[in-house]
Amino acid sequence: MKKNLIVVLIFTFIMNILNNLGHPVTPSFVGSLNIPDYMFGVFFATMSLGMMLSAPLWGALSDNGSTKKYIIIGVLIYAVAQLGFGLVHNKYLMVGFRFLGGVGVGAPMTLLISLVVGHSDKNRATSLSIMAALS
How far is the C-alpha of 35 from the C-alpha of 89, rounded, in Å? Predict the structure, then answer.
């Protein structure tokens, strides 16, 4: 396995761990703000929507050869969105920050796959299955 591929897989694993650290406490956090329970589902779905809508855009942008740059931009957008989600106490603003978080996380989730494919020669399916296991 190529060194670059190993680095991408390790980054994928660490990123996914960090992306999911907040999930166990989010219901308690939402409850502490006296926001209705159903909003937790809205927050989750809104982030998924942001990721779904932005993934094709990130792919098109990275086709110019700046994949790593767009991964970094996406991670920074995600970080700002998570910070905003934690600091605002208005459910509508929180929905907006979750959508923005989905847009941000859409970059690495999409573009890391393209890096794995690009760094894999013969064992593309094996590399993608390892990436899926690390996600």
Answer: 9
